[in-house]
Amino acid sequence: MDKLSNYFRATIEEMRYNVTWPSTTELQKSAGLVLVGSLVFAVVVGIMDVSFESVLKAFYNSFR
Questions:
Q1: Residue-by-residue DSSP string for 7-32
Q2: Rounded to an integer, what distance in angstroms lies between the CA atom of residue 25 and that of residue 11?
Q3: Which of 6, 22, 31, 40 has a CA that sits 20 to 30 A from residue 55's CA?
Q4: Nearest of 37, 35, 19 to residue 27 by alpha carbon
Q5: Which residues cross the membrane (predicted)?
Q6: 3-state secondary structure of 23
Q7: More confident site: 64 or 7
């Protein structure tokens, strides 16, 4: 039990005094970058999905 309490004390001390927390401006910039990157990735995957669907439909219809 003593090891566990030492672990939590050390963790709290580390988080308070040794971690460099980003400012609000930095967080907003990072969140915006993640949002834009996620949207770009979603659009690329959507385009790939539509194009693969079209190619596969054409392929399967060629055997009818």
A1: HHHHHHHIIIII--PPPHHHHHHHHH
A2: 26
A3: 40
A4: 35
A5: 31-52
A6: coil
A7: 7
Q: With CA atoms as reference, report the closest residue to 54 among 64, 39, 46, 42.
A: 46
- Greatest alpha-carbon span in the chain: 73
User: How would residue 10 be classed by pLDDT, with cut points 50, 70 and 90?
Assistant: very high
- What's the CA gap between 52 and 29, in Å, rounded? 35
Mean per-residue pLDDT over the chain, rounded = 95
**Distance set, CA 25 to CA 8, 22, 39, 41, 50 (Å):** 30, 8, 21, 24, 38
